Amino acid sequence: MLIEYKEIIDKELRLFSDKLPSLSIYDPIKYIISNGGKRFRSSLTLMAADLFSNQPLLAINEAIAIELFHNFTLIHDDIMDQAPIRRNLPAVHKKWDENIAILSGDLLYAIVNQLLSDSSSQSPTLHQIFQQTAVEVCEGQSLDMEFENLEIISISEYINMIQLKTAVLVACSLKMGALIGGASKKDAQLLYDFGFNLGTSFQIDDDILDVFPKEDNFGKQVGGDIIEKKKTILFIDFLSKASEEDQIMVNDIIDDKQLSKDQKVSKVKDFYLKYDVLKVAQESKNNFYNKSMISLQNLSLPEEKKKIVENFSVHLMNRKF
Amino acid sequence: MLIEYKEIIDKELRLFSDKLPSLSIYDPIKYIISNGGKRFRSSLTLMAADLFSNQPLLAINEAIAIELFHNFTLIHDDIMDQAPIRRNLPAVHKKWDENIAILSGDLLYAIVNQLLSDSSSQSPTLHQIFQQTAVEVCEGQSLDMEFENLEIISISEYINMIQLKTAVLVACSLKMGALIGGASKKDAQLLYDFGFNLGTSFQIDDDILDVFPKEDNFGKQVGGDIIEKKKTILFIDFLSKASEEDQIMVNDIIDDKQLSKDQKVSKVKDFYLKYDVLKVAQESKNNFYNKSMISLQNLSLPEEKKKIVENFSVHLMNRKF
Hints:
The structure is a homodimer of 321-residue chains.
Chain A: H1 3-18, H2 27-34, H3 40-53, H4 60-80, E1 85-86, E2 89-90, H5 92-95, H6 98-118, H7 124-148, H8 155-180, H9 185-211, H10 224-227, H11 233-241, H12 244-255, H13 261-274, H14 277-298, H15 303-317
Antiparallel strand pairs in A: 1-2
Helix pairs in contact in A: 1-2, 1-3, 3-4, 3-8, 4-6, 4-8, 7-8, 8-9, 9-14, 11-14, 12-13
C-alpha cells in the first residue's frame, strides 16, 4: 500500500536532485539519491499525514528530509563498517574516497536541516522531534560499533541499540507526518509508539529471517549474519545460554576454512536449535508487534483507516526476506 | 574586548559538557569542548546581541550552538586533512580513531541542531540563516580539498573558498546575535556583511602574516605555509605571475633536503618579493577591511557602540600572529 507514496517520493527526489548545485561535492549526493531504496521512512511520513488530513503532500518536505537523513547515515555508516557495496553499487567511500564520503555526508545532513528550516510546516515541536531522533540515531550507531567489540551483551541492551539505531527514525517519520496532518498530540504519540514497536519487531524479525527464512525463500543465501559473526538477537541469546565448550565449537565452525558457507550455517543452526534461541527471539518479536497493535487500536481514527495501517503492518512482517 | 564574552561562553560550555550523557561516544565531544579555543564566533554572537539589546545572554543558546558547530567542523576537517594535533593536543581521530571521530562529529552536529530547536529564541529566519551557513561551510571545505589538487586557481576562486569555509560562519554568528537582540532586518544584514568582509580580510591577513610577520614577532616560526606548499593567496599570486623557470625553482627549493626550513622560507620569500605578491594580498586585505567598515558605519547604532566594534576590528587585525 505504500507504493503510491514511494512513487511520489521518487519523483520529488529526482526534482530535488536536479536542482542541486553543480559543485562536485554534490555528486555523491546525487548518486545516492539516484541509486534507489525502499523509501520506507518517507512513505510512512506521507501515510501518516494522509491518515489525518487526506493530504499526504502536506508533509512532502519533511518526508524528503527524513529520506535524505537516512541516506546521510548510510554514507557514514558504510565508511565505519567498511561496507563496499550499497544497493548493489559501490558505496560512496569506494566510488570516491573516505574524505569525500565524510564531507558529502555532512553536507547532506546540512541540506536536510536546510530543507526543514525552509518548510512552511515547520514548528519548534517538529524540529525537536527530528533533532532528538538524529541524536538517538548517532547514539544507536555508537552502541552498534561498541557491541562488536564486547564479549557479552544482554538482549535488552541489544534491543535498546536497535531501537536507537533504527526504530526511532521509523517512529519519528510517522509522528512528524501525523502532526503535519493535524493529529492531536496524543494521536501523534500513539503513532510514534506504533512505529517504535513495529520497527523493533521488524529488526528482530530481520535477525530471525537470516537464519530461519520463510518456506518459499527460493535460493536466497541463508545465514549471512552467522558467517559475519554478527551479534544478532539469536547469537546473543546463544552466547548467554551455551556451555563454554559449545561456544568454542561454534566459533571454530565459523572460522573453519574447510567448511562451505552452507555447511557452517547448517552446523551453527543446530546449536541454535539445541538452545532454543528462536523461541526467545520470536517471543520478543511478537511482544513488540502486539504492543504496536495496541497503540494502533488506541488511535482516534476511523476503523477503516486503522485497518489500512494494520494491513500494511501484516504485509511488512510477512515479507519473505 | 571580547574577553568577557569568552568567559561566559567557557562557563556555559563547561555546564553543557557536564550535562552530557555518560555514553562513550560523548567522550570526544567533552574532550574537544575542554580543550579550549578562542570562542571567537560565539563571542561575536553575544556581542551582537549586546549591541542591540544590552543583554548578551539572550543569545547564549545560539552562541553555544555556533561554537559547537565550529568544533564539529574541526573534528571532521582534522580527519580529512590528516592533522594529528589540534590546540596542542591529539586530534579526536588520533586520540580515538577515525570511526569515532566521524560519529562523534555527526553527533555533535545533531546536538547543535537540538540546541537550536530547543531554544526559546528560535525562528524560521534563524534556522534558515544557520543551516544555509552550514551548507556553505561544507561547500567551502570541499573547495579547499579540491584546490589542493589543482595546478591553477584564480585569486577570486581562492577568496570565494575562504569566504565559504570561514567568513560566512563569522557573519552568521553576528547576524543571529543581532536578530536575537532585536536588530532590524537591515541592521542584521549590515552586521552580516561586516563580519563577512572582516572575516575575509582576516583570512587573507593570516596568509600574509605567515610569511611577513609584524616586526615584534619574537621567535615565532615563519613560513609554515611555504614549507607545506599551502595554496595561500601569496602562493596563488606567485603561480599566476612567475616564469615557468621560477616556478620550478621555488618547487625545488621547498623539496630540497639540504636546506633548513629557515633557508627555504628565506629563498621563497625572495621570489615573493620579486613578483610583488605582498602588494596584491595587502590590497585585497585592505579592500575587504574597508568594506567591513562601511557596513559598520551604516548600522543604526549609537556612535559609541560602533566605536566598540571598530576598536575590536582594529585589535583583531593588529594581532601579532
